[in-house]
Predict the structure.
Amino acid sequence: MGEVELSCRAYVKMYLHACLFPRCSINGLLLSSSPTGGAVCVTDCVPLLHSHLPLAPITQLALTQVDVWCSQTQQRIVGYYQANACVSDNSPTPCALKIADKIAEQFDNAVLLMLDGSKMSPDYRVPPIVMYERKDSRWILKDKHTIMLRQWEETRAIASQMMESGDHTLLVDFDSHLDDITKDWTNQKLNTKIEELASPANGNI
Amino acid sequence: MCVMVLMSQIASARPVKMPERFESTLEKRVVECYRSEEMRDKLRKWREDNCRNSEQIVDVGEELISEHASKLGDDIWIIYEQVMIAALDCSRDDLALTCLQELRKQFPDSHRVKRLTGMRLEALERYDEANKHYDAILQDDPTNTAARKRKISILKAQGKSTEAIRELNEYLEQFVGDQEAWHELSELYINEHDYGKAAFCLEELMMINPHNHLYCEQYAEVKYTQGGLENLELSRKYFAQALRLNNRNMRALFGLYMSASHIAASPKVSAKVKKDNMKYAAWAATQINRAYKLAGRGTKENKCSMKTVEEMLESMQITMS
């Protein structure tokens, strides 16, 4: 199918989300602010849960709120990501497939991204992600060559640096927001930090 | 106490300029005394609250053990245990082994220490060896619940959910009041999408602990997920109960709003039920808006959440009527 591009901001936030809750399964939504047609550019992500992923109420609530926020900010939900607590198993769970299906109803080229925990050691060289796309009502593995991460080395460095300096503790997912609603699940502060670290020469991050 | 004595001595003495070297040693001792007390208190609080903030425990614990061990008295053993477990959680096998070795020296035949040995093997993914240790404990003492729970944790770590569930059920037949075990079982069932059985576990938990708002709220979430009118009504009731126990539980508030809205929108309900649920939903919506207004005061970034929630509530009301 089509090409998918993953931005630095989206990758770093997903990575930090997984680092913040290393003992839990985590999930979130992938967003795009680019116009439709051509490659799918994942420009941002919203971390959602780190507990009770298969339960419906909070997931429904989060999907609705993110939907509303997207329409206010000219973005759209284009995919879903998840990292399993069990590091040796990175296959999509039934709830991952369900949520991804729902997203695919609204966006044809939706992607399902699984973070591979076993490949996230400090010296990892390749992006620890596995992507799936929808074909004939099934989710199949996406050809690696259609997945792009521009400036991968820089992105990887930013992610490691932020984790080492403890910035992952600044990340707010929807679960944390519900524990304290003064926290911002759009993570504006973190976005700013990521932008500061990315080189000014970098075009669209 | 040592701080107070020093202060009174200094206050009553005539102001005499002390040699600099003496001053700084005194200061250092005072600061160290205070600091080790502070660290000890932190570790105690985390033990009592059963927090899993392993990185912090390792930070504080490592310093306490290496620099203030002499001041800890008998507390040192329980601190070794706490730091060892936290170290395993952070892949700090060096620190874990140090703590374990001290504990082994002091308590050579202890089952409690044997269990820690097993846990270290688990962390190194040497599950068969770990199981041997736990089996040895259970051979000696069949009622040792800690060893049984570790065996179940190994099944979970290996992804053997069905076996873990079976073993946990057997365990609970014997130890019916074990809240931790019931909660673990409910989580396992939720991950297997067996919501009926998860609900049963949460019902047991609510019976044991009727004032815990989190159990009510989780039960309500499971019921909501099961779906169907009857389950939705139950979920609404339990979201409401969770709110009665803790009126700041936002999940319960949103849950109440969503379940009431769905019931009101259902074509199968009577006019009265529809009207009642619209009332509940409207009440919940007001509370939600109020909570977000309070939260949003002063900070620019929270205005975003407030607006999002307002719009979301409005859009859901339209689908309801």
Notes: Chain A touches chain B at residues 23, 52, 54-58, 60-61, 64-65, 68-69, 72, 86, 88-89, 93-95, 177-179, 181-182, 184-186, 188-189 (CB under 8 Å). Chain A is about 35% helix and 20% strand. The first strand of chain A starts at residue 4 and ends at 6.
